[in-house]
Every structure is written in structure tokens, then in C-alpha cells.
Design brief:
This protein has 2 domains: about 210 residues, Periplasmic binding protein-like II (D-Maltodextrin-Binding Protein, domain 2, 3-Layer(aba) Sandwich), CATH 3.40.190; about 190 residues, D-Maltodextrin-Binding Protein, domain 2 (3-Layer(aba) Sandwich), CATH 3.40.190. It is built from 17 helices and 14 strands. The strands form 4 sheets. Strands 1, 2, 3, 6, 13 and 14 form a 6-stranded mixed β-sheet that branches. The protein has a 4-stranded mixed β-sheet with strand order 8-11-7-12. The protein has a two-stranded antiparallel sheet with strand order 4-5. A hairpin with a 2-residue loop joins strand 9 and strand 10.
């Protein structure tokens, strides 16, 4: 989620900077540097500009090490990382989605980074849940550095025109407000029902968790009741007309565009959307996602540093990760929220537009389910939500279908 916002933020980066990074990479490849003095870091291309500055500082502090940066992209990184870990021909440090970490841990492909945590990087300084997502069997296999979740974003002008003075705080208020706001070519809400299934399923999960579903060791514990309640909002809203029918044709980015264009009055999205809306001149507001009787839950995910078990320079890799994980450096490398609480003390993380997402993240979220079996189940949940939205099945039937699949793939709810 944070990717597109970060990518857009760096569209204007000069060609000279990019060429400089590429030149550094090419030089490292040709020179065949000694692995004991080189740390190879695979990082997403949207982090490159700031990472380049941080690497220069790191090398100044560690003159015995040279960092070789290799860019990855959103479309290719998952496969590239998987192939490298499977083959054993790995870099020393990889920036990857935290939610993919558990898959690597189960295959014994990561180095244990537990020793990095201590006085300089206390565990209690990390946002609740962030370390749970990268830990197993008493060991911690990554250092999260960016952590975020979605929450409610709304158009203050449309709310005022409809006579609504405050954002909804409960499900009943959410439905009532959406019905009131739906008028003419404006819909109360919209959902990303096209594109990647994760965006839609994560929203479903937020409502399911608010209705009693839990996440244990990366596995969602669903019930028919929790899934039915979620489907009544995410699916039935389209079938009943208080969510945009365009939901069936749009992804996360296009939902945001509908909102910016005044076609949707509110939606559940990431804090990185807010700056784009402010830049567009919108009178935008944010709030914690409503639940049945108060704040609702959301799944949180982020980005972290992993060190492959087959890395050639694990010592150098740990030194680089420790440097990048300092609060000041962590804050520089994220436009959403740092994973360390001490890194998120700056005003830019807590202004009137971003504070609600911070409260959602720190008080009303849990790590997004990341068990490989759940990942395999996502497409069927995605299809079920769409079926309810199209009026082809009821929330009750959809919930029973989801539970049957969950019992088969995940095991009966505990």
C-alpha cells in the first residue's frame, strides 16, 4: 500500500542520482569485491534516493565496509527474492514485506537477528505486533522499519453538505452515513474489488476482526458470524447501493481517485493517500475505522530488513541493519510510520491528518495474517466477497463458504 505513494513521491528524482546508483552497482560487479568487505543490499527502488544518502553515512562510519545496492521493483521483487533464497545465491541484506517473512522462516532461509535487539534497539520500542510478525520459536528473524495500516478517510465538504458533523464511530453510524451521503453521482463508500485480491480481503478482515475473528501465529481464526458481519458491510453495501457500483471495476488507486474527484464520500485507505488528497486541495478528514460499538480493528503490515542464512557477510549485514534501524534513520526512510515508537516522535507523523491512523496502528491493529495456508486461501475469499457484492449469494451463504475453506486449509477455529 505504501508503495505507490512512495513511488509517486520520487518521480522527480534526478536522472543523475539514478545513474550514480547504477554506476556504483556496476562497479561493484566488475571489481569482484571481497565478500568480507562488501555488503550487498537488495532494496525497493522507491527507497533508493534516501537510502543512497544513508549508505554514504554508513560507509563513513564503517570504512572497512562497502555497500553494494541493487534495486528491486514491486512487480519483480517477490519472485526475485524467493528464487535467491531457494538457490542459496543470496545478497546479504534484503528489504521485503514483513508479511512474507514467515514463509522464509518456515524454510530455514533466514539468519536469526535476535542479538540485534537490546539496549540500543529495545523490543519495547517497536509498535505493538511488529515483532510478533517476524518472530518464531523464541527467535526474531527481521527488523521491521516501516509499519502501517488503513483507517477511515472522509470528505469533510460532502459530510457537511449532507448535514453530518462527525465521522462515523460505529457500524450503524457508518451504514447510516453512507446511505445519507449516497445521492446523485456520489456514493457513500467504495471498495477495491478489482486488481490485487489483498486490498479487498484485508478490508474484509478488518471488519471480521472487529466482529470477533482473531489472528494467532499468523493464522486468522474466522467464524461464520464474523465473516457474515464483514460481508454484510463490504459485500452487501454494493448490492444494496450505498457503496459505489464502480467498486467492482476499481483497485486501491482508483478508489482514491474516485474520492479525490468527489465521487465517493469516504473510504478505508492508508495514510499515504492523505498527502495526495491535500495536494489536490481537498478538505479531508481521517478517523479510526468504526467497529460494532466503537473503534474497529485493522491488519497492519510493513517493510523490514532480513538477512539470508546463506549470506556471505552476515557480520557486515547485521552492522548495516543496526545502522538503518536507528530511530533517526528509520524515520528518514518512511513516509508512513516507522516501526520504532521513538522514530515516530516527529510532528509530521502526528498532525491532524495522520494522528487517527497512528491511533489505529498502535491501539487497534494486529499484524496481517501471513501464514502460507492463508495466503493460498485469499483468492477464494476475494471471489466470495465479489459474489455477495453482485447479489449472487447472501452474506450468510458466503460466510459458510469461507468457513468451510478455512476449516479445510487452516484447520477448525480454536
Amino acid at each position: 500500500m505504501a508503495i505507490r505513494g512512495r513511488t509517486a513521491a520520487f518521480i522527480g528524482v534526478s536522472a543523475a542520482l539514478v545513474l550514480g546508483v547504477v554506476g556504483t552497482i556496476a562497479s561493484a560487479v566488475v571489481s569482484g569485491r571481497d565478500p568480507s568487505t562488501t555488503v550487498t543490499w537488495w532494496l525497493p527502488n522507491w527507497d533508493t534516493p534516501i537510502a543512497t544518502e544513508l549508505v554514504a553515512q554508513f560507509e563513513a562510519e564503517n570504512p572497512d565496509l562497502t555497500v553494494r545496492m541493487v534495486e528491486t521493483t514491486l512487480d519483480t521483487m517477490a519472485n526475485k527474492i524467493s528464487v535467491a533464497l531457494d538457490s542459496g545465491d543470496t545478497p546479504d541484506v534484503i528489504t521485503d514485506l514483513v508479511s512474507r517473512t514467515r514463509t522464509y522462516i518456515r524454510s530455514d532461509q533466514l539468519a536469526d537477528l535476535s542479538d540485534l535487539y537490546g539496549p540500543d534497539m529495545p523490543r519495547e520500542d517497536f509498535v505493538h505486533g511488529a515483532l510478533d510478525a517476524v518472530s518464531s520459536g523464541g527467535a526474531t528473524y527481521a527488523v521491521p522499519y516501516r509499519w502501517d495500516c488503513i483507517s477511515l478517510i472522509y470528505n469533510k465538504d460532502l459530510f457537511a453538505a449532507a448535514g453530518i458533523s462527525e465521522p462515523p464511530a460505529t457500524w450503524s453510524e457508518f451504514v447510516a452515513d453512507a446511505e445519507t451521503l449516497t445521492s446523485g453521482d456520489v456514493a457513500g463508500v467504495a471498495w477495491p474489488m478489482n486488481g490485487s485480491p489483498n486490498g479487498l480481503v484485508n478490508r474484509f478482515l478488518g471488519f471480521a476482526m472487529s466482529a470477533g475473528a482473531t489472528v494467532e501465529d499468523g493464522v486468522p481464526q474466522l467464524t461464520v458470524e464474523s465473516s457474515r458481519a464483514a460481508l454484510e458491510i463490504v459485500g452487501s453495501s454494493v448490492a444494496e447501493g450505498w457503496a459505489s457500483r464502480s467498486s467492482l471495476e476499481v483497485d486501491n488507486t482508483e478508489v482514491r481517485e474516485l474520492f479525490i474527484n468527489g465521487r465517493v464520500a469516504m473510504y478505508i485507505g492508508g495514510v499515504f493517500d492523505v498527502q495526495l488528497q491535500l495536494d489536490a486541495g481537498m478538505n479531508v478528514g481521517t478517523a479510526v475505522t468504526p467497529g460494532p460499538g466503537g473503534p474497529g480493528m485493522q491488519g497492519a503490515d510493513g517493510w523490514g530488513y532480513i538477512v539470508p542464512a546463506e549470506a556471505q557477510n552476515i557480520d557486515g549485514a547485521e552492522r548495516l541493519v543496526a545502522f538503518l534501524s536507528r530511530p533517526a534513520n528509520m524515520a528518514r526512510l518512511t513516509s508512513t510510520y516507522p516501526a520504532r515508537i521513538s522514530a515516530a516522535e516527529g510532528e509530521r507523523f502526528h498532525d491532524e491528518y495522520r494522528q487517527a491512523h497512528w491511533v489505529q496502528l498502535t491501539e487497534h491493529s494486529v499484524p496481517t495474517p501471513n501464514d502460507p495456508a492463508w495466503v493460498g486461501m485469499i483468492p477464494s475469499v476475494y471471489s466470495t466477497i465479489q459474489s455477495v457484492a453482485l447479489g449472487q449469494s447472501t452474506p450468510e451463504d458466503g460466510a459458510r463458504a469461507i468457513q468451510a475453506e478455512a476449516d479445510r486449509l487452516l484447520g477448525p477455529a480454536r
